[in-house]
Specification:
Blueprint (H helix, E strand, L loop, with lengths): L14 E3 L12 E3 L4 E6 L1 H12 L4 H4 L5 E6 L16 E6 L8 E8 L10 H13 L2 H4 L1 E10 L4 E5 L1 H6 L5 H8 L35 H22 L4 E3 L3 E7 L2 H12 L5 H7 L15 E6 L4 E3 L7 H26 L10
Antiparallel strand pairs: 1-2, 2-3, 3-5, 4-5, 6-7, 6-10, 7-8, 9-12, 10-11
Helix pairs in contact: 6-10, 7-10
Length: 352
């Protein structure tokens, strides 16, 4: 995993809300003041899994597909009086903020697996989660789109698509959802379906809309291809493991800024041998310098509150099915984006 420079350990009082969250409980996760680290309240099982992940040699291959883990923090300061008895028991994990390196991060959260409940679920919750899997794409395909954001080229602001969209999709419509996350510049067929983070409602089907999404084909193709290769490798790493990841997600982020995406792709495919030298050059603490150019995309597993090692029980077939579904969807997106490009002018306008 290519490493990025991270800030010093977080201290009380310099936290701020995470602004790039596309799924889960909004407002719960925080970042350090510079945005490089993520602070997330975690259940004991998630804390334990991250700790095991650092030590268990059988999980070394999987570790590179998870956010860098820097340790834990205990809750400090005032809490809601009704929850005062929990203050000493609430632990937060400190992780790298995967979106930090990007100028305009397009972010997709995909819930993996066909089983949505763990061994602690009550009969009522088990029945509810089984129905949820059946009523959404999870049961048949092993994935559910839980939310994503795509940057508008014209305004340089992200447009977020909420979990209600993913829940509404049928299995045969998943390709449409992936196309909305990987839009090709100049094509309006698969525009995002929600308003910006301000909550403003926008009719994206309006032909007079000034919104503009997507990368040109020469940038989109290598990014989608690279993401596909990462998911293939992740599946190979995950397949022999005896583990159950319930409600874990596959997080995919790629650069939506055209210039930065082009530069990042060049570094990723051509200049990997120079990475060590460039890391040494970036040790300067001058905050006025522009953010270091990072990867053009990242693929990581996240959310391990219901993850367990299960020796002797074999591989996690539901999650493996989900990964295979993602690979097939990416293959389909690569094929269709090339066809869409045939009808595009191929121009590279100045977006300012």
């Amino acid at each position: 995993m290519n490493s990025q420079s991270l800030s010093p350990s977080p201290t009380p009082g310099n936290h701020q809300p995470l602004t790039t969250q596309v799924a889960g409980h909004v407002g719960v996760m925080m970042t350090t003041e510079d945005g490089s680290l993520l602070i997330k309240p975690a259940l004991p099982r998630e804390v334990e899994f991250y700790q095991i992940l650092q030590q268990d040699k059988t999980l070394e291959g999987l570790r590179v597909f998870t956010p860098q883990f820097l340790g834990t923090l205990k809750l400090e300061g005032q809490v809601d009086p009704s929850h005062a008895n929990l203050a000493e028991n609430i632990i937060s994990i400190v992780l790298e903020n995967l979106a930090y390196q990007f100028v305009k991060p397009n972010i997709l959260d995909v819930k993996l697996g066909t089983v949505l409940y763990d061994d602690t679920a009550t009969p009522e919750k088990k029945a509810r989660m089984e129905k949820a899997a059946k009523d959404t794409t999870s049961g048949e395909t092993g994935i559910r789109v839980t939310g994503f954001q795509v940057y508008d080229n014209a305004t340089s602001k992200p447009i977020q698509t909420p979990k209600t969209y993913g829940k509404s999709l049928k299995p045969h419509q998943l390709g449409e959802g992936i196309a909305k996350f990987f839009p090709l510049f100049g094509q309006s067929e698969f525009l995002p379906v929600a308003g910006p983070t301000s909550g403003e409602d926008i009719d994206m089907s309006d032909s007079t809309s000034s919104y503009s999404f997507g990368l040109p084909i020469e940038l989109l193709t290598p990014i989608v291809q690279g993401i596909r290769e990462e998911v293939v490798l992740l599946r190979e790493v995950y397949e022999p493991l005896e583990i159950r990841m319930i409600a874990a997600s596959l997080l995919i982020i790629y650069e939506a800024d055209w210039d930065r995406a082009e530069e990042a792709l060049t570094r990723y495919f051509v200049e990997e041998d120079n990475e060590e030298d460039s890391d040494e050059e970036d040790d300067d603490d001058d905050e006025t310098k522009p953010k270091k150019v990072g990867l053009p995309f990242v693929v990581r597993l996240i959310d391990f509150a219901h993850t367990n090692l299960v020796p002797g029980k074999g591989p996690d077939k539901g999650v493996l099915l989900g990964m295979e579904t993602v690979i097939n969807l990416l293959d389909d997106r690569l094929k269709k984006s090339r066809l869409e490009a045939v009808h595009s002018s191929g121009s590279y306008p100045n977006l300012g």
